[in-house]
UniProtKB/TrEMBL annotation:
Any GO BP annotation: G protein-coupled receptor signaling pathway
Protein name: Phosphatidylinositol 3,4,5-trisphosphate-dependent Rac exchanger 1 protein-like
Gene Ontology CC terms: plasma membrane
GO molecular-function term, one example from the UniProt record: GTPase activator activity
Domain of life of the native organism: Eukaryota
InterPro entries the UniProt entry points to: mTOR-Rac_regulators
Length: 492
């Protein structure tokens, strides 16, 4: 224990001997060492306690590196040109044992070299561990299904691009004060946009992936399983925001930079100075945005009695996905409800307080009812009494979950086998529902609005890009989806 001064003195005293070694910057080899410098007994105890902890860690590492996992890794890679065999690798443990013994000797006979002995042990064990890690990595690469890995990478990229695009559009809408998911409560778009920005800064953003894929079709069942596995990895993605250099990209409001991998991924959104100044202060100061991805799926056909190759029912696959997503979206709803109740700052005036409470309770009551309906649709079973054999149990889950997530401020993505018939018709229905829910469209005009959206919405461009792609609506699809189909003469 000494300062790093020119005249500082070091002293090491062994518990097992009375010898003491001291050193000073000004001492020569022939200088006589002071005999009254000793490490106090409490410092000696601390030294031995630290060394005991170090030796315990070394023992634990040795046990792990001698275990069956490392042996299996060497077995899997025995035909590879490697630097050492398993027996040679295990002999490295003897090096750590020798380094440990030298530390014990230094404590008794040569305390002056104790730091060097400890550093030598640490370096040896680090090299031992690094060799073990490299062998595990080599075995992992050998056993990895590269085709499956590429498939997961491709699906993750597609899901991530969809998330970035839908979030960016909704973000720009909010920054322009045009986003409003609360219009039915006579809230202005400016206030709704500000609330949504504050909400995502506090609770993260909800991503609702809505699937119309059918497990009865092999290709679509594979797609459904892929997206189910991929969305769990989207929770590891973080969005960050930085101000865009005006000279960097011309005539661009938002620019993206992605770094990382599927385990940890960071997406940086560069915004021009006008939009960046409107972000919540947390984002302007470098805070990240967390994603909460959910997937609700329902085939537009009756799957009763149909089974998967593994013997489980196709309905069970949908039920498993929807149940997990329902629990996740409920957690987000509870977090969001707490956020709004805590920030309500109720005024002291009783009349004003009553109005404020009414404004908070109405949306919450509506979401509670939607949540109850979602639970009933998720647990719905086929072939219910009073319905025909073509009845699609729980088909109302798609529009109800869409409305619930819309009220939660979610960014929404719709998918089917081709992105054509089912997806575009579902989007047309959703657009008309938003007009009725938040912008005053009369209920009797919903189907007329849907027809207009079908002829002028995304379906037009998607159909033009996929002229030879066929995607027919199932015969047993719910009536609301059949009503918005184009006529048989081929008109969009």
């Amino acid at each position: 224990e000494c300062n790093s001064n020119r005249d500082s003195v070091l002293s090491y005293t062994s518990v097992r001997s009375n010898s003491s070694y001291l050193g000073s910057d000004e001492m020569g080899s022939g200088d006589e060492l002071p005999s009254d410098m000793r490490i106090p007994s409490d410092k000696q105890d601390k030294l031995h306690g630290c060394l005991e902890h170090l030796f315990n860690q070394v023992d634990a590492i040795n046990v792990l590196l001698k275990g069956p996992v490392i042996s299996k890794a060497f077995e899997e890679t025995k035909h590879f040109p490697i630097d050492h065999t398993l027996q040679e690798f295990k002999q490295k443990e003897e090096t750590t044992i020798r380094s440990r013994n030298k530390i014990q000797i230094s404590i008794q006979e040569d305390p002056w070299n104790l730091p060097f002995r400890i550093k030598n042990l640490v370096d040896t064990i680090q090299k031992y561990v690094e060799d073990g890690k490299n062998q595990l990595l080599l075995a992992l690469l050998k056993c990895t299904d590269t085709e499956l890995q590429v498939r997961r990478d491709v699906i993750f990229c597609q899901a991530l691009v969809a998330a970035i695009c839908t979030f960016s559009e909704q973000l720009l809408g909010a920054l322009n004060y045009r986003y409003n998911n609360n219009g039915e409560y006579e809230e202005s778009s400016r206030e709704a946009s500000k609330k949504w920005l504050e909400q995502i800064a506090a609770t993260g953003v909800l991503l609702n992936y809505q699937s119309l894929l059918s497990p009865s079709v092999k290709e679509e069942r594979t797609m459904l399983e892929d997206i189910q596995a991929t969305l769990s990895e989207l929770d590891k993605v973080a969005f960050c925001f930085k101000q865009l250099d005006e000279c960097f990209v011309a005539n661009t409001h938002v620019f993206y930079h992605v770094e990382g991998n599927r385990q940890v991924l960071k997406v940086t959104l560069f915004l021009d100075s006008y939009y960046f100044s409107k972000l919540p202060s947390r984002f302007q100061n470098g805070g990240s945005l967390k994603l909460h991805a959910v997937l609700f799926t329902k085939a537009l056909e009756n799957l009763e009695g149909q089974v998967l190759p593994n013997g489980s029912s196709q309905e069970e696959l949908q039920h498993q996905i929807n149940s997990y997503s329902l629990e996740k979206v409920q957690q987000y709803y509870r977090k969001l409800r707490t956020f709004y109740l805590e920030r309500s700052n109720l005024p002291t005036d009783s009349n004003t307080t009553a109005v404020k409470i009414h404004q908070l309770i109405r949306p919450i009551n509506a979401m509670e009812e939607l949540c109850r309906l979602m639970k009933s649709f998720v647990s719905a079973k086929g072939n219910q009494s009073g319905y025909s054999s073509n009845y699609v149990a729980g088909a109302g889950l798609l529009p109800i979950s869409s409305e619930f997530c819309y009220r939660l401020g979610a960014c929404q993505v719709v998918m089917c086998g081709t992105g054509m018939q089912r997806s575009t018709l579902c989007v047309s229905l959703e657009q008309a529902a938003i007009l009725a829910r938040s912008h005053g469209l009369l209920p009797k005009c919903i189907m007329q609005a849907t027809d207009i959206m079908r002829k002028q919405g995304p379906r037009v461009e998607i159909s033009a890009k996929n002229l030879k792609v066929m995607d027919q609506m199932p015969q047993s699809a719910p009536r609301i989806y059949k009503l918005c189909q184009p006529p048989a003469d081929g008109d969009l």
